[in-house]
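Write out the 3D structure for:
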Amino acid sequence: MEYQIKGQTVPVVEFTLNRNESLYTQSGGMVYQSNDIQMQTNARGGVLASIGRAFTGESIFMANYTATNDNQKIAFAASVPGSIIPIDLATLPQGIMLQKNAFLCAEQSVTTKVAFTKRFSAGLFGGEGFILQHAQGAGKLFIEVDGDAMEFILKPGEVLKVDTGNVVAFSPTVAYEVEMVHGLGNILFGGEGLFHTKLVGPGKVIVQSQNFREFANRIIPYIPTRSN
């Protein structure tokens, strides 16, 4: 399997598949494909796994695409302006934790399951809820990022503080918790909200430069509404 990431504003990842090579994505993720690719939609992992995906913001049903001939192309697009990041899970034996809506597509050898935040405060105030996704396997995973992506490799005990909603993915070895912003003046006038995410190494962290949910909230007041 070969792949190429194309485009800049709303990119796609285009795959060239040979016979019997297969990928899966959430329903509605495909942009274009060659003729000799077969699609099969199913509740990947069973009913419980499907319900879990719904809580993480993904589709209940997953679309599986398998090439029935060589040199077949298929492409999947990001849902908002941003980036597509490939992750080789063969280099991450413990897998990687994903925030809601980060999953784009993966090889069939990759599995995703629901994971819960270990700290109540992280789930309650972290902006992404209690539920994450844990991706593992020997294949490649592709995630979508709002805006541009920054990657950090944290040393043991090294701390990275991130604005709520800008954490995309991190190693299971990274401690994930939420802290309240210090100082009444910072809370009232800092413009950064009440909480930020504290990540403690060791492990890999991927951060996005844009939080599309926050961006949408900023433009809502400027959208014309029909008066009664």
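The first helix runs from residue 47 to 55.
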